[in-house]
Amino acid sequence: MSAPATAGRRDATATRLAHLLLTRLTLAVAGGLTSVIVARALGPGDRGAYWVIVTVATTAAAMGNLSVEKSQTTLWTREGDRPAIAANALWLGLAVGAAAAGVSFLVAVLLLGAAADRSALVWGLAAVPVMMAVVYVNNVHVLRARTGVVNRGSLAGAALQCLALGALGVPGWLTVEGVVIVWTLSAVVNLLLLLPSLPVSRPRERRLVARTLSCGLRHHPGYVCHFLLLRLDILILNAMSTPAAVGIYSMAVTPAELLRAMTGTVVQVALPRQMESSRETAAAYTARTIRITVVLATASVVLFCLAGPFLVVVAAGPAFAECVVPMLVLAPGVAAAASAAPAAAYLLRLDLPVRTSLMYSAALLVNLALNALLIPRTGVVGCALASTIAYTALASAQVGWFARSAGVPLRRLVPGAAEVREIARRVHGLLRAG
């Protein structure tokens, strides 16, 4: 590739990264406002009930999505399959999501019984097929380096959610069911804005469905374990403690989730290069991406620890003052997980789903054991500590596996002045452009 072409590609990547960072920042602000509105309107107890329903719905989506987005990424290396992957994304997401929602409703009713708010639960599970379609379609856009489309859909959904909750919250009309309905409608808006730009050049193709599902199912046990690692603590805490404790923990988790989303922008922009390049080029690019992500995660955690607790308590009110300590305990684990995300993406190239599943299941077992041990003794703080330990252990395993398989010394993953200067230059250019 010529020098001008390489420079042009770098500029295009930097531009996508800048736009995605701005989008993530806007989404973080919108997510923070949404959390504050819900916390003020519902209080710890009802916020906990709402969070349980959202956790049930997102768990249903994760358990039932069959890791199709993983198989999309793996199959994307075969250029001839790309049109069919794009053609299948929407209808496959809706079909698989509808089946997952139906099964999850029956399971939730059996497990939660009379404690379940059936109407709110139905609204929450109605989001499952929509969310699944969003994941599949988003992944196609990301693999085609069309992150602008993804940005617009995410921003529109977040704007609707924030504005609707604000409009209902000011006069005091918000209920648990109302918050869930708004959450579901925001997912619908997100999906609708993704469809006009979906690069479908032919009708849906069933010939690739069996291969897509087969490939996805091989990765699915690991994906499920990873998702449960990130979400099961809410359900464990709900079973072992009170809805108010869940509400406190959900507020502590929210800034950490936003931090993960911010650093995830680098991973999203890097994914096409990681999948389309030769393995040697992808390894070098992944190492560079890890260095940049470490800098971003470290800076984010420092700012988060300095300002986050004060801002959250002031915004959400004194009823949520207990979230400060678990929030700070969670921060290092989230930073470790965010820093290792580029390595996790690279490992998809190796197509070793059994080994991946064992790695994620080990981290999940560590989290479960620590939660069972710590929650009865230290409550919400113990739940946060269990997650941080499990996240850090998983991140270490991912980075170590990447370094061994790619032949990259660990010292090459430590950021230096060059990465700091590059990020500072990009941020400066972004601010000047703004």
From TrEMBL:
Annotated membrane topology is: Multi-pass membrane protein
Instruction: State the InterPro entries in the record.
Output: Poly_Biosynth_Transport
Q: What keywords are annotated for this sequence in UniProt?
A: Cell membrane, Membrane, Transmembrane, Transmembrane helix
Q: What is its main location?
A: membrane
Span-the-membrane segments of this chain are: 21-42, 48-68, 89-114, 120-143, 155-174, 180-200, 292-321, 327-348, 360-378, 384-403
Q: Where is it localised?
A: Cell membrane
Instruction: Return the protein name.
Output: Polysaccharide biosynthesis protein C-terminal domain-containing protein
Species source reads: Streptosporangium oxazolinicum
